[in-house]
Amino acid sequence: LSNGDMWLLTANDGAVRAVTDPQNGFSVSTQWYSKRSGLLSTNKVSDVYLDKSNDEWILTDNGLGLIRKGNVKPTMFLVGKSVAQKQHFYAVLEIGNNIVFTSNGGKLWIYNMQSGHFSLQQLPTASDITIIKLIQNDEMVLGTKDDGFFIFSLHNRSVSHYNMFTDAALPSNKISHIYVDSHKEIWLDLGNANGVTHFNPFNHRVKQELVPVELNYSSHLYNPYFHAHEDVNGYLWIQPKGGGFSYYDRKADKLVPFY
Length: 259
Description:
Blueprint: E1 6-9, E2 15-21, E3 27-33, E4 45-50, E5 56-60, E6 63-67, E7 75-77, E8 89-95, E9 98-103, E10 107-112, E11 117-122, E12 129-136, E13 139-144, E14 149-153, E15 159-162, E16 175-180, E17 186-190, E18 196-200, E19 205-209, H1 217-221, E20 227-230, E21 236-239, E22 246-249, E23 254-257
Antiparallel strand pairs: 1-2, 2-3, 4-5, 5-6, 6-7, 8-9, 9-10, 10-11, 12-13, 13-14, 14-15, 16-17, 17-18, 18-19, 20-21, 21-22, 22-23
């Protein structure tokens, strides 16, 4: 994290927080956060986030932990007493004085840093919201486990839903990765579908980009994963799932193979 703390997340045994002290020869102190240590009510940690107040948030499969600056023990929020009440937190986005946490069952929990209170935004889906990315201002894109994606505005709470039933151009409802480029256009890696899905939030157009790939023996051994990168000159490079490394020609609105 930017405050110098380092977190090591395990698959099913909590997380370790390492704190360095530059005033004491960069000595390192560690603390284990798990059920065994008594600092968490669960052993599954999805992510750790540092907010602008230098407080640290622990996202778990049963609640949120808030470690205030200078403290060790977290204050727990939204912890369920039964399996049905559990809130599994996946991702987080800070906008102004609000922190938006994504959860299971189509829930967004919005924490106001001034009041210290949470409010619930229920989206029209039963799917888990696993990804959150800022588009611009207070508008965000939300990826679900198996029900497509949403465009959500924090200011007016407007919601737009895109899935295979609302838009035939989507080849899958499973959102694996999302990249928002510098022009605020959205690139999605969808489930088992090859290629990459391009969404323009200004005209609401969904387009599946498939790049021709020459198949050979290595194609069966190595199936490239999705990756997107913008270089210092503003060129957007896309590695679609299944191969076909390309750059995006904005004027022609298409991927151009780099070979």
